[in-house]
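As noted in the main text, all predictions were made from sequence alone. Below is one such record, for 4-hydroxy-tetrahydrodipicolinate synthase.
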Amino acid sequence: MISGSLVALVTPMDSRGNLDWQALDRLIEFHLNEGTDGIVAVGTTGESATLDMEEHKEVIRRVVDKVAGRIPVIAGTGANSTSEAVELTQDARSVGADACLLVTPYYNKPTQEGLYQHFRFIAEAVDIPQILYNVPGRTACDMLPDTVVRLAEIDNIIGIKEATGDLQRARELIERVGDRMAVYSGDDPTAVELILMGGKGNISVTANVAPRLMHELCEAALNGDAETARRLNEQLMPLHRKLFIESNPIPVKWALHEMGLIGEGLRLPMTRLSDDCQPVVREALKQCGLL
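Prediction:
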């Protein structure tokens, strides 16, 4: 089972918005050296919404090739078109991804039955472990626990990234499907509590800039060491909060640029972190000993 600190990796770009392959290689080595337990490529934080289909596939391929089996690679292959999600998932399987992460369809707002049919269709079409991703704050679509319970009956649906930050929801999911699928946090501030109640890890934005600390936090929580896990969480709380001062991934990409790890590029409609917010994120980096 994939577990621990799973970084929702940014996609490095230059100042003109072109993909920066050398920076991507450096980032991957940074995470391998700092103890990250798995990489999620081309998720929300990886700017999946503004990569075209071929770029999306190529980033996943390059991450898989560079990691070379040293840690699991989870490919973000979700879409609000079922056929597009199938195509991305098939390609990720063909290049050797260990699993795929599939977000709930955004904008078109399917019913719960529509969500069930969407995810079942993809699971039956592509034989690769698949992790559901529920983030209603970004998709305007909330997959309810009853639907997750139905999907847990499908063998290759192995987990869910629950990014609501609602610990009551997380506890219900763990109680109802935790024997059949892994429940991962997708909300850095509450991740430690979700893991302590039986979750298997955290798909993390904060891990982009503090991979060692996030690995240690997840490891402690998975081992039931609540005191250590909560102490590390308090240490990281400035980052958990300030990396969302503007829409993700604007702050985290600025932070990585400030740390000298990537260029400053994003793609419209995302824009550079505002001047007023830069000192706030810089101070959070300093508080965590990263600058």
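The chain has a mean pLDDT of 97. Residues 226-242 form the longest helix (17 residues). These features were considered when defining construct boundaries for the mutagenesis experiments described in Section 2.9.
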